[in-house]
Structures are given as structure tokens and as C-alpha cells.
């Protein structure tokens, strides 16, 4: 992998690190390299840990790309939606090691993973689209509806509520929170536990469990590609 995304394999666990500057912004190049990393993980038949830099998992889409124009923004959102759809159906377990802030698209990524560990600290997690003038896209609404606790769905999607790591556990963005120096230790501990699963059964059960959701997500991605309202 190139320096925007780093891939390492150790004892059956593939660790994928997003490494794109101060905000760990998600753009076409990052998504391309993330997909290549997932391709490699599939070849390696590895349990995956997806993480970011210390203090920042990701602040979401690259605003320089989003501000180029409506078509450019819609294209990047489509690529991102297809990527999160891939995460949701990935044949091997994926653990999110949330290394700090996780906003907008980064929060959608967390919502698409099998298990999510965050860290203690004054970090912000959530969907801030409405707060920054972006109308929530159809795919995003369904990703949030699928995984967020019902009491937090409206608060997150419509009110753009932002959570602390502990609040993010209650909302559904994270499954647990640990001390910062324990993040990767805990993620690897979980990964080794997931390695004991029968991977064929895991993959088939994941697809069976999520069949209706994945079908709805495909329809939502198509609807977004036809008419994507990003600002209003």
C-alpha cells in the first residue's frame, strides 16, 4: 500500500491504517487504497482491524473534493456509500479501532463494522451533516437506521447530535471504550477471538442476517446517484 493507507499482516490479522494528514480526510485516493487493502485482506483470509492516526479516526469526506461542485460531491459520496456497503458485507470480521474523532463519513464507517472499540478522551463522534449544511443522503439514513439505537437515530440524523466516546457506546457508534494505550491491544485481542469463528459460517450468516438491509442499501445508493441533495 502507499502512504495514504498502510497494510500489515500479523498472525492472521490485517491491520489497515488510514494515514491522510491532520483530518485523515476520505477522498477518492483513500477509498481506492482502502479497497485495495480489503482485497489483500480477502486474499490473506484475515480478520481486519481498521484504524486511524492517534487522536483522529477520520473527520469524514475531504471537503476540498466536496466543495468542487455538486457532481463532484455526489461522485465522492457514491464511492463512499459503495465502500461502506462493502464493509457491511465483508466475508471476514472487521473490527474498528477508533483512535479519536470520528465524524460524518467516518461515523458511517463505524456503523458498518462488526465490532467497534473507541478510546477515552475528549473526542467527538457522530453525524454532523445537518449542522454543516448537508442534507442527509438516502444511503446514510439507512446506514444510521440499521445500527443506531432507536432513541438516538433521530438525534443523530436530524439533529446532528455529537457524542463523547462513552455516549457513542449508548448511541451505537461504538461497542466499548478503553484507555488510549490499550486500543490496539484490545482490538488484537478481539481479532484473535474472531479468528476462532468458522469463517464460512460467519460470512453466510452475515449475508443472511443483513439481506434485507443490503438490498435497501443498494436501492438507496441508486436513488442517491439519481438525485443527491447535498446542500439546501
- Shape by Cα distribution: globular
Question: What gap, in angstroms, lies between the N and C termini?
Answer: 38 Å
Side by side, the strands of the main sheet go: 1-2-3-5-7-10
Q: Tell me what portion of residues adopts beta-strand conformation.
A: 15-25%
Percentage of residues in helical conformation: 40-55%
Radius of gyration: 16 Å
Assembly level: single chain
Report the major sheet: 6 strands, mixed
Mean pLDDT: 95
Structural class: alpha/beta
Are there runs of 5+ residues with pLDDT below 50, and where?
none
Total of DSSP H or I helical runs spanning 4+ residues: 10
User: SSE order in H/E notation?
Assistant: EEHEEHHEEHEEHHEHEHHH
Number of strands: 10
SSE layout and pairings?
Layout: E1 5-10, E2 13-18, H1 28-44, E3 47-51, E4 55-58, H2 63-66, H3 70-88, E5 94-97, E6 100-103, H4 105-110, E7 115-119, E8 125-126, H5 138-147, H6 150-157, E9 162-163, H7 165-171, E10 176-178, H8 183-194, H9 199-209, H10 211-226
Parallel strand pairs: 2-3, 3-5, 4-6, 5-7, 6-8, 7-10
Antiparallel strand pairs: 1-2, 8-9
Helix pairs in contact: 3-10, 5-10, 9-10
